[in-house]
Design a protein that fits this description.
Elements (H helix, E strand, L loop, with lengths): L2 H13 L4 H12 L15 H13 L13 E5 L11 E4 L15 E4 L4 E4 L5 E4 L4 E4 L8 E12 L8 E5 L2 E5 L3 E6 L5 E8 L2 E4 L4 E5 L3 E6 L5 E5 L2 H4 L8 E6 H12 L3 E3 L7 E5 L6 H10 L4 E5 L2 E5 L9
Parallel strand pairs: 7-8, 17-20
Antiparallel strand pairs: 1-2, 3-6, 4-5, 5-7, 6-7, 7-10, 8-9, 9-12, 10-11, 11-14, 12-13, 14-15, 16-18, 19-20
Helix pairs in contact: 1-3, 5-6
Length: 323
């Protein structure tokens, strides 16, 4: 890995936008370093700067450094593996202890093969449209709540005045405290669209505030011309895709349970007697899996319980069998 590439990856790490492969590349590079025998634990806040400084010092060395066997070291906290924060703290068997501030919270890359519900660590809810991707780093929910979106998503953000929620989409950032809105920002498209259904959001680039949006307001940004169009719209119509495939009219109970399992990517099993029971129900699209299961069970007088790896629905059924 050359200096330019490493610098680029470290900058992405500091911004919290590294992919899994990039984190693995950084991990491999750092594990190959000639670690000094008296190395002290690294402060997480300055880790990226420390690594970059160390790297630049090493490439300026005229002689070949003496390699220290990595077997003498054990990664104690925040090991840099795929999806884990780059806060590496090493200690020797003979005495070094990990920093008390080390974090083991995982970075996440969430991909949606279909419309998918995601609940973030702060309780905020996100519905990702099929083909979209959401990234958030290990520092999420500390001083700020920051995510990166590629594609389209509907956000329902938990209110927290002390920790603003920031969505990065290309050159733009959308900042909120507690609200509901959608963003459409596909990397291959020249436009970024932000639509507010509840609350207030501020959209900005690196130099200026582009718009402050309230309910039923929309901003369309052109990345080619850097122009902004603000307009009044029916936000409910704009985000109707959130409810897509979630309205059922006399569908089999089992088919609905299977649809929820797909949406939440969580196994949902049920008593076979319930499978063909005709059920009419419509979901808002913003429910958690337990909220959705609760409503579904009410339609048949059933109940659900959490089990290892998923949920199980119990009920007496309705006497309807498959044709």
């Amino acid at each position: 890995m050359n200096e330019h590439e490493l610098s680029r990856l470290l900058e992405k790490y500091r911004a919290g936008t590294c992919t899994d492969d990039e984190l693995r590349a950084l991990s491999g590079w750092y594990n190959e370093l000639d670690l000094p025998a008296d190395a002290a634990p690294i402060d997480e806040k300055g880790l990226a700067n420390e690594m970059l400084t160390d790297f630049r010092q090493r490439i300026d060395m005229p002689s070949t450094p003496k390699r220290v066997s990595l077997r003498r070291y054990i990664p104690v906290a925040a090991a840099l593996l795929a999806g884990i924060t780059l806060a590496i703290v090493l200690f020797r068997h003979t005495g070094f202890k990990p920093s008390a501030d080390a974090t083991a919270q995982h970075a996440q890359v969430v991909k949606a093969a279909h419309n998918r519900f995601v609940q973030l660590p702060d309780g905020s809810r996100v519905i990702l449209k099929a083909g979209s991707r959401l990234n958030y780093g290990a520092s999420f929910n500390l001083k700020t709540r920051e995510v990166t979106l590629a594609g389209e998503a509907y956000f329902d953000i938990s209110h927290d005045k002390s920790r603003p929620f920031i969505i990065r989409t290309g050159a733009l950032s959308t900042r909120v405290l507690g609200t509901a809105f959608s963003i459409r920002a596909y990397p291959e498209q020249a436009k970024i669209t932000v639509t507010v259904t509840r609350g207030k959001v501020r959209v900005e680039d690196k130099t200026r505030v582009l718009a402050v949006l309230t309910p039923d307001k929309q901003m369309v940004y052109s990345s080619k011309s850097a122009s902004v169009l603000s307009q009044n719209i029916d936000a409910t119509d704009e985000v109707k895709w959130v409810k897509q495939n979630l309205s059922f009219d006399n569908d089999g109970f089992g088919a609905i349970a299977d649809r929820l399992a797909e949406r939440f990517e969580t196994p949902v099993e049920f008593d076979p007697a319930l499978r063909n029971c005709p059920t009419t129900i419509a979901f808002s699209g913003n429910e958690t899996i337990e909220e959705a299961l609760h409503v579904l069970c009410l339609t048949r007088g059933a109940s659900f319980k959490k089990q290892k790896g998923g949920y199980y629905i119990s009920g007496e059924g309705c006497g309807v069998t498959a044709k």
